Amino acid sequence: MATITATAPRSGLPGFLKHPATGKLLLLAVAAAVLVPLANARWASGSWPHALTVDLTEPLGKASDWVIDNRDSHPLFLYFFGYVSNAVVLSVRAVYLVLLAAGWAGVTAAAALVAWRVAGVRLALGTGAAFLACGLLGMWIPTMQTLALMVVAVLASVVIGVLLGLAAGLSDRTYRALRPVLDTMQVFPAYAYLLPVVLVFGMGVPAAVLATVVYAAPPMARLTALGLRGADAGVMEAVESLGTTARQRLLTARIPLARKELLLGLNQTIMMALSMAVIASVIGAAGLGDRVYQALASVDVGAALAAGIPIVLLAVVLDRVTGAAGTVDDELGGDTGSRWTGWAYAAVVAVAVAVAGRLTDRLDWPEAWLVNIAEPVNRAVDWMTDHLYSGVPYVGGTADWAGHFTTWVLDPMRDGLQWLPWWSALLIVAALAWLIGTWRTALTAVLAMAAIGVLGVWGPSLDTLSQVLAAVAVTLVLGFATGIAAARSERCERVLRPFLDVFQTMPQFVYLIPVVALFGVGRAPAVAAAVVYALPAVVRITTQGLRQVDPAAMESSRSMGATGWQQLRQVQLPLARPALLLALNQGVVLVLAVVIIGGLVGGGALGYDVVFGLAQGDLATGLVAGAAIVCLGLMLDRVTQPTDRRTKKGA
Amino acid sequence: MSTSTDVQDAAVEPTGAGHTSAGGSGAEPVFAVDGLWKVFGPKADRVPADPELAALSPAELRSRTGCTAAVRDVSFDVRKGEVFVVMGLSGSGKSTLVRCLTRLIEPTAGSIVIDGEDVRAMDKARLRELRRHRAAMVFQHFGLLPHRTVLDNVAYGLEVQGVGRRERRERAQEVVTKVGLEGMEHRRPGQLSGGQQQRVGLARALAVDPEVLLFDEPFSALDPLIRRDMQEEVVRLHHEEGRTMVFITHDLNEALRLGDRIALMRDGRVVQLGTPEEIVGSPADDYVREFVRDVPREQVMTVRRAMRAASAQEAGEGPALAPQATVSEAIEAVARTGQTARVVDRGRCLGVVDSDALLGVVAGTGGQFADEAAGSDTDAATGSESGAGSAESAPDQGDGTASSAREGVA
């Protein structure tokens, strides 16, 4: 190739050589040609060379032992973490007791009335029904446990998030420092947050709450900062021209102008807190998540579903109500007076219902009203196991599919990845990241990948990676196809929308329940859960991207007589490229999160290491796996990060 | 009305130097801007300080220093009760200039004095005081708070000042009525049309009862018809209250309709400052000439420009016109009667206009003396008092406005 470029006159370069991508690849190839023989000679090919790993197990084990030994004596724990931990325990306990004292009737009434004030009658009815369903399923106590944990975690997340957001929103320097951190934190799977918290606080409620806060606060901070910074410059100037003080500007203009972002931040924080509060059951949070976790551990799908349904209902209700908070209020506009009286009525009614419940001694959900769905569900699952798992004529069974998927897709992919010489894996990562993004993203990605090798979890990480890649491939094929269909047909989109809405709000954890019912345990169910979880986001971004293509460009291509297929291929898809890349990026991040959680249902690899570490008290293994998850997340995000997102940051 | 005679003298036999702008009007300036600079870019301070850099063209300045001079050595006075229009194309620095007046943009060099007080020397508290009570601004994109009702938006300036809820609402209500928004008090800005939103912006500025109203291209974002409505609204308000106004626009017709005096800006400099009649009748350079080429001159120029001394016979007959009547009115009178028309001020005949002279004005060839007079900006200053009358070429209300302003001055 080099000789061709040397002999050919400059102007006569073939087109593909002038393409910037070619330049990047050539440069990489040259670097590889120099470095690879060196590396090869020194450490040999194949899996990550042992000489290059750093065994962190021992120091981490020591650190963990030290923490356990000193938890009751060291001043750091006595005077800082101890207080934090106690405060968390006390506040969760207090909220829990208040919820119990209000009784099921009181809580349901209060929730419905809040929903009524915030979002209108329909959602109030839905909220009431959802809470009653939680009771009917026999999950009232776990629901209240989860709710108590969520209330504390959400309050803390909002306070921390708003404070950080204010700092970043008002100071450019803080913003520049904070933004990459927050961006990156959003990429990490929830699991990565569990272990460091456990290391410090041990298993239990404080760790669960803090992990939840760490996971849920970033969106609040991000959106607060974004909202404050995005205030209309014209309005701010007008406000300044009237002689406002800095405080007046913040309170009367900047914060109200950011209302939409603040409410969106609250919505996201609540949803992420719910998601994490459920996952945190693996580190000792009681509640709905714990029920699902226990049930999944014994492959009791019925019990898992009984606990999973309340989670879904909570998620949908919380999402709709907080989501509606932004819009409804705008339309009502009007008078603050009537709004306050409305709230007063709501409070009075809620208290009255709670007191009535107390007087009639009906605090606990009545036994007689329980609906046991576990048994019928398990019977149905047994029936499915007998009849659908395998041997269905022509189509085969679900377990057969899972098996085939494992044998024909996952296994070859894993073996292929693990067979790759380690340096070629790095090269591929570098090439992909550089082609899609910039040299910076490429460098981060390569370093993250290398860090995985250094941590000594090259093998399991590639196993996880193979599951991620398989899931992403399936997700993209399904997602793009559905997205294109939805973008081209209004009807299709109308049908899809409610499903997307519900699926996007559900916590990652609950996706494991149906896949276990359908496919049993193993890697294939983990991949299936990941696909289902990531699909809605991919479909939605694809649809939006295609829809937003400049109608003038579409019209002009139509006017030139392009067929539908030509329009799609030559106009829509190229113009929607940024959206498609974003869909890819989101798909990868979401898939990774669930593939890791799949460790709970036999996904193995890194996710299993984390769970194993937690279960066995072997924090070192878990922490190393957690760090590898972080690196993997970072690598996957950077590899798929379009240049646009980088450049937008400057603006 | 002594000023009119004054002007008439000046027009007929240019008196040359002797009038300073302040002396000509006999009123103390509200704003006195002198040698104002605003330079954006690294180490902006050195540009005004260094005469060599200050003399560079914008492109050279940018390549030499990386700086952009938005306002370059601008000086003018805004007199009490007048509508002072700053006009120029986009990028000419006019919006920066008006923001410098209340230091929404910090000027680089020069002085700004409001009622004898140095604006650039004000501390933060004093500056807030200035913005709260003395100068209120109306913006091109309204700058309304979307989460507040119309009434609360209008009351916002008072709220900022710490006026109690009840009182500020009462005062806001009055202003809302004054700008013709009754019945919309409880709407949100998002529910209003562009013209209505700008009425809210205007009301917000009026509610604090400022000494000076600053307008930054307030009507550029509006439809032509609504723009005309709003211009008339401003004319009416000025007529009723006689408030001093500084009005930024890129629309020449708007400038001519509203302005008592116009400062025409180009590349950060004021290229000509004068009454609409002077700008149209005696452009200072080719740029201005090109600019005003398509202006319907007969609606801007007054008969004074087309006037010649009357013979004894002419002084006694023919239709009578006020000196501030526009040429188009004179054409109508001359065409209707077939006689020369007399220019009469308080029963005294100042001169006559005939069809040749009027045609000359329309064609842009007439009014030679005007071109001669253009050399001395003193006439620009004095002329403004009378020229103002014709500036509002819309004959229906323009005159009234200008004369009320003039009375305020005299």
SSE diagram, text form:
The complex is a heterodimer of chains A (651) and B (410).
Chain A: H1 2-7, H2 15-18, H3 20-43, H4 57-70, H5 75-119, H6 121-136, H7 140-170, H8 172-185, H9 191-201, H10 205-229, H11 233-241, H12 246-257, H13 259-279, H14 288-297, H15 301-332, H16 336-359, H17 374-387, H18 398-419, H19 422-436, H20 439-454, H21 458-488, H22 490-505, H23 512-519, H24 523-547, H25 551-559, H26 564-575, H27 577-597, H28 605-616, H29 619-639, H30 643-650
Helix pairs in contact in A: 3-19, 4-29, 5-6, 5-7, 5-10, 5-16, 6-15, 7-8, 7-10, 7-13, 7-14, 8-10, 9-10, 9-29, 10-13, 13-15, 14-15, 15-17, 15-23, 18-21, 19-20, 20-29, 21-22, 21-24, 21-27, 22-24, 23-24, 24-27, 25-26, 27-29, 28-29
Chain B: H1 2-12, H2 21-25, E1 29-40, H3 46-49, H4 51-54, H5 58-65, E2 68-79, E3 83-87, H6 94-101, E4 109-114, E5 117-118, H7 124-134, E6 135-138, H8 150-154, H9 156-161, H10 165-178, H11 194-207, E7 212-216, H12 224-241, E8 244-249, H13 252-258, E9 261-266, E10 269-274, H14 276-281, H15 286-291, H16 297-300, H17 303-306, E11 320-321, H18 327-337, E12 341-345, E13 348-353, H19 355-363, H20 368-374, H21 377-391, H22 398-409
Parallel strand pairs in B: 3-8, 3-9, 6-7, 7-8, 11-12
Antiparallel strand pairs in B: 1-2, 1-4, 4-5, 9-10, 12-13
Helix pairs in contact in B: 1-21, 10-11, 12-22, 18-19, 21-22
What does this 3D model show about the protein?
The complex is a heterodimer of chains A (651) and B (410). With 651 residues, chain A is mostly helical. Chain A has a domain at 54-372: MetI-like (MetI-like fold), CATH 1.10.3720.10. Helix content of chain A is 81%, strand content 0%. Chain A has 30 helices and no strands. Chain A has helices at 2-7, 15-18, 20-43, 57-70, 75-119, 121-136, 140-170, 172-185, 191-201, 205-229, 233-241, 246-257, 259-279, 288-297, 301-332, 336-359, 374-387, 398-419, 422-436, 439-454, 458-488, 490-505, 512-519, 523-547, 551-559, 564-575, 577-597, 605-616, 619-639, 643-650. In chain A, helix 3 packs antiparallel against helix 19, helix 7 crosses helix 13 and helix 18 (398-419) crosses helix 21 (458-488). The longest helix of chain A has 45 residues, at 75-119. The radius of gyration of chain A is 27 Å and the shape is globular. The model of chain A is unreliable at 1-13, 330-334 and 645-651 (pLDDT under 50). Chain B has 410 residues and is of the alpha/beta class. Chain B has a domain at 29-291: Rossmann fold (3-Layer(aba) Sandwich), CATH 3.40.50.300. Chain B has 22 helices and 13 strands. Chain B has a six-stranded mixed sheet, with helices on both faces. In chain B, helix 1 packs across helix 21 and helix 12 runs parallel beside helix 22. The termini of chain B are close together.
